[in-house]
Design goal:
The chain is mainly alpha-helical. It has helices at 20-31, 42-49, 56-87, 91-118, 122-126, 128-131, 133-145, 159-180, 182-193, 198-228, 235-259, 269-286, 301-305. It has a single domain (55-311), classed as Ribonucleotide Reductase, subunit A (Orthogonal Bundle).
Length: 331
Amino acid sequence: MPIINNTKTDPNKILPMKYQWARQHYKNGVNNNWTPEEISMQKDVEQWKSRTVLSPTERRLILWNLGFFSTAESLTANNIVLSVYNHVTNPEARQYLLRQAYEEAVHTDTFIYCCDTLGLDPDEIYNMYETIPSIKEKDDFVVNLTQSVFDPNFTTDGVDNIQKFVRDLVGFYVIMEGIFFYAGFAMMLALKRQNKMIGIGEQFEYIMRDESIHLAFGCDLINTIRTEFPETWTPEFSAEIGTLIDQAVALEQRYAYDACPEGLLGINADQFAEYVEYIADRRLERLSLPKRYHRENPFPWMSQSTDLSKEKNFFETRVTEYQIGASLEWD
């Protein structure tokens, strides 16, 4: 029985399971459970109010990343609930999608928490997807990939429709969560390495860990559809996916130069652009497609930044241990 187009599936009958990878991703998500209120923001408030700690470039970078992520998380959640869940008929995969939808809600709540704690103007933050061209272009790019699957009459019957559904999965899992998020992650974690906005940096570390599982699930879902419906993965379709990755990389690089034109201490905008290409090659490999950029990772510390099993001072913050950190890939 395939993972889609299985009319005989009883959505209430999860046992026996066919796709153990879906169950494992669900368990990994549970082990990563967190809420934004667990993370202290007191030092962030002090730094944000200070006139000397953060430069104008750094303040702008923080606002832009909050603006992009606040709407991108909502777009992703809507896609899961309104599109992907409807067309994935396997119960254990659906169980993971419910878990992911919850995590997207936590991420959305994180940006509400950050805005409220820092006293930011919510209209400014949440309208950046309309007012900042390089943010709008990224959101529009993903939304345009998924127009047809939001049609209430859409089905995944036939090669053409399965390809449309896979484009949706590539758009949100590989491009939005797997490429469009990563320059922003690197910027915010680079600030954290300078002991600036530590609370927001830790929020982004938690989000990045969640996103790595979302990406892994999405790639497993795409690869399963490819295996079960091999007639859909034609050379032409493979080339189309490669072209979409190229376009996504160009959009994310434009965002990187716009959001951080002067770079940060020890890091320049060119390195953020190189990191996007490095990340894109990792995504292509995960889909069994050839590398296109052949970049080395300019930020090897990004993997270390998401190792949240480190010890913490009991009197400063709640100790949070992840159980399965060694099994996940962060880049």
